[in-house]
Amino acid sequence: MRIAITALAALGALSIAACSKPAEKAADAQADAVQANANAAADQMNAQADAMKANADAAADATKAQGEAAAENMEAKADAVKEAGEQKADAIKDAVKK
Q1: Into how many domains does the chain fold?
Q2: CA distance 10 to 28
Q3: Does residue 17 carry a pLDDT above 80?
Q4: Would the pTM of this model clear 0.70, i.e. be above it?
Q5: Are 47 and 62 within 8 A, CB to CB?
Q6: What is the mean pLDDT of residues 22-46?
């Protein structure tokens, strides 16, 4: 993609260069090609940055979901331990009453 942009910019610059001062037009063409390359590289880097952000967001969502699931599991275990303790306490009280 960058090669095509560079080639197109260079071709356009060369056609313009034929109409006026050769050194000035050549410099303009070279500057245009450098700018086109910089723009293409910047666009590619921005696309990579966007992809990295999307991956980070997805990873954060997955980590949050795992954390919430682990917390819910721990709460369920705590409730079970509490219930078992209440049942044992009731059994002890019932045994004394008999």
Answers
A1: 1
A2: 10
A3: no
A4: no
A5: no
A6: 94
